[in-house]
Structures are given as C-alpha cells and as structure tokens.
Amino acid sequence: MNTRFLVVVVLSLAALGWISVLSLTNTPNFPMYAAGQTSSNITATNSNATNSNATIAMSEEEEPTNATSTVVRDSLFAYMDGRVLPPSDFIHLYDTTPYMIMDGHVAAKLPCNEQSQTPFQILIGQAPNMTAAELELVAELSRPGQICMYHADLHSAHEDQQGSAKGRAITDIAIMNPTSTEMQFPVTSTVVIGVNEIMPLEKGQEHGVGEGGEITEEEHMH
Q1: pLDDT tens sequence across 108-121
Q2: What is the pLDDT of residue 159?
Q3: How crowded is residue 132: how many other Cβ atoms within 10 Å of its Cβ?
Q4: How many separate domains does the chain show?
Q5: Cβ neighbours of residue 4 under 8 Å, at least 6 residues apart?
Q6: Whole domain around residue 198: which residue ranges?
Q7: pLDDT > 90 in the chain, percent
Q8: Residue 49 domain-assigned (yes or no)
Q9: 3-state secondary structure of 142
Q10: What is the reported pTM?
C-alpha cells in the first residue's frame, strides 16, 4: 500500500508540473509594475504626460507673430476744395492703429508759390509724435504760383531700417497748416493715401509713447 501510494503521489506531482508549464506558455503579456505602483497610477501618469505635451504645443502656437507683415490694398481720397484750415491746426486723415504702415504712398495736390513750395505739411508718424513728410515735387503735374503736385513714400521704422518718419512707426497721417494765417484750399486740392503693407505694432510701441515711456516733445500735433 505504501509503495502504491508513493507512485500515485509522484504521478500527481508530475501532472501538476506539466499543467504549470502549459499555463505559463499561454499566459498573455500583462504590464509590469514597479513596487507599490498600480494600474490606476500608470494611467494617471500617462494622462499627465499627454496633457503636458499638449500644453507645450499650445504655448508654441500662441506665441505672437509680430514679425509677419500683411499685404493689403487700402486707399483714401480727400477732396480739400474750399476747406479752411486755421493757423497751427491740422486735419487727421488716416489711422492704421494697432498696425503700422510698412509700405505706402501719399500724393497731395496743394497750393504753392512761384518756387513750387507749399505752406502745408503732410504729417506722418504715431500720434501725437508726428513729423513732416519729405514731399517730392511732381513738376509735370504742377503749376508754380498756383497749385502743385507732391508725393512721398511711407515706410515705418523697423529693425535696422530708419523709415520715412525719423525712426518712428507710421500709424497716422494728417495735413497741417503750420503758419500763423488761416488757409483755404483752392479748387482741385486733394490728398490721396495708399497703403500696400501693414504689420502689428511691436511690443512696447504704445500709442503716443516715445522712447523711455514718455511722450516726446519734438514735432508733435497739438
């Protein structure tokens, strides 16, 4: 009986060993966890990593693109015939805030003397800091002593470019009577403004604020 009992025990142990081998062979691949880490911890960790990456991607996309200009085509026609401009006063004609003019043009047909000089000024810049544009005479379309045609290019200061307004951004355009006498515009007096390219104002270029955060006194509109 003892011999027969030992044989049965040995055969049973052998059978259990084969079953264990077969079970290990067919066991699916389960994730391996570090000591003290559960499946719920793993899920939370992966979720946090995904959200972190998404946040980084959004931050990169939301960075300002102030370096990008936009090509546009906008124009203004101002018929000045009969208008009266008081001494040391101006008429505000155009404003592109919060953008600055990167490429534009202004043409003006204004009264002039025998030397083809006009008493009026075309002011450009960022109000109230304005400067007189350097007007170029169009002799072929002028009648000295009566009325003359002038034009000027418009370019804001940007990076290493000084631009047309003595280092300023150009957002505003106006016509001014700098004399001490009231002036009336004759027939066919006109101002035409064309804008071809604009760019968002750079960070820190607040309207009406000069370098150092103070309003500059040089050549400004009153």
Answers
A1: 999 999 999 999 99
A2: 82
A3: 17
A4: 1
A5: none
A6: 70-203
A7: 55
A8: no
A9: coil
A10: 0.64
